Amino acid sequence: MRVPARLVPLIAVTAASALLTGCFSGGDGDSASGQGKRIRLAMMQPPRSGLSPLSDDAFKLSRWSTAETLVKLDADGDAEPALATEWKQSGPSWSFTLRDGVTFHDGTKLTAEAVVNSLTRAAAASPKPRILDGVDLTAKADGDKVTVTTATEDPLVPQRLSSPQLSILAAKAYRGKTVNPVGAGTGPFELTKANGTSSAALDRYDGYWGKKAKAPGIDVRFVPDGTARAAALRSGEADIVEAVPVSQAAVLDQDLITEVPMPRTNTLYLNTEKGAFKDAAVRAAAREAVDAESIVKGVYEGRADVAEGLLGPALPWAAELRKPVRRAKAGDPAGKTITLGTFTDRAELPEVAAALQQQLQKAGFKVKLDVREYANIESDALAGEFDAFILSRATVLDSGDPAAYLYSDFASDGSFNISQLADADVDKALGKAGRTPTGDARRKAVIAAEAAVLGTDAAVPMLHERVIQGDAAGVADAAHDPRERELVTADTYLK
């Protein structure tokens, strides 16, 4: 049983704080202007791919306001101008007009050729960025315009191009097989140093095309240990702390934390290709064994929402459209041995795994746990090495539209198909959702696809998370973004 947060021994907090002592002192570089205070940022997950924008590291570049895309999303998920000022569709092709006066951090100009280069590299990457799952995309330069064409007519092209994984970087970033974003973005902050998995530094870019950054720079430290991140906020060693663990929230000054409902679902993925969960009846038994409410109360201390489906309260229309799902009847799991995996980077997940182990064992399963850092477990999870895997998954992270997430995770050829699901009805529903124009019809098609997935019991949604962000008393205008795209913006500064 977990020790309540208020009873965490002082020695543990002191030891965690010691992990950060001196980390932010002096910074990694001074602002050219020498005015104002640099923002000290403690982030949860270290880079996994050298900050390549073609990986999930792209969202770090986005949250630091250093790499930008042709399009960005408003609060409702609709596309609005960024590096492109306008766009027009003609069948499977979209023409994007580029913004004038934009330069990369190395001084070179934003051109149609530079945009084509970035998009072409992303489209040819292996694996592809999730936002391009099932999409055959080509880009062509035409004066100050870029024409983006897909193999079939795609109503979501502008939203796809808002994904941080499709950031536009200078030509110098693309040398050999790697992509190096240092000094190659267009945002209000220039990435000047990337020190492996330990730290990064950014300076204000005075040649920025838009509003100049108020802060002179950002000093980033990657701190996977949640207690250490919380201790950094408590001790004043960090100004902004990403993803404060629920267990630490209660012992922090409540004025310093913000709770944001997230389009993020904590889901139990079941391997449908091999092992015990190849049998639909056994998957149904696992689904019935899960007591999500007790996990919300016990692990998340009520700071989460019990899931009714894969899409949560951050998308309020989902609950309004959802209907009961037909599922298989539960079989007898007695004697079935399964391996349940998850990762340590999100502090609550090991506790969720322990709670699920007890629930599944009570139902008759024999459960072995395998818990590691995400960087050391992702490849095994994607290769189907686990019978079951617990994942905290953002459902609209890439495009503002959940159809891309559903395709990535549950289509037969989805690049993030941890359940190894290959179901013709699911593929058909996902295809329809992807083809339907934006609006009410698309939302209904998305919910139909969600129902098709839930009917297989390949995924058991348990809860929808709320992110807890820590901002020191002197922080002004830090972003609190449900989509995890923004954090330090041009408007963010220290008083």
UniProtKB/TrEMBL annotation:
<dbReference type="GO" id="GO:0043190">
    <property type="term" value="C:ATP-binding cassette (ABC) transporter complex"/>
</dbReference>
<keyword id="KW-0732">Signal</keyword>
<dbReference type="GO" id="GO:0015833">
    <property type="term" value="P:peptide transport"/>
</dbReference>
<protein>
    <submittedName>
        <fullName>ABC transporter substrate-binding protein</fullName>
    </submittedName>
</protein>
<dbReference type="Pfam" id="PF00496">
    <property type="entry name" value="SBP_bac_5"/>
</dbReference>
<feature type="domain" description="Solute-binding protein family 5">
    <location>
        <begin position="80"/>
        <end position="415"/>
    </location>
</feature>
<dbReference type="InterPro" id="IPR000914">
    <property type="entry name" value="SBP_5_dom"/>
</dbReference>
<feature type="signal peptide">
    <location>
        <begin position="1"/>
        <end position="18"/>
    </location>
</feature>
<dbReference type="InterPro" id="IPR030678">
    <property type="entry name" value="Peptide/Ni-bd"/>
</dbReference>
<dbReference type="GO" id="GO:1904680">
    <property type="term" value="F:peptide transmembrane transporter activity"/>
</dbReference>
<dbReference type="GO" id="GO:0042597">
    <property type="term" value="C:periplasmic space"/>
</dbReference>
<dbReference type="InterPro" id="IPR039424">
    <property type="entry name" value="SBP_5"/>
</dbReference>
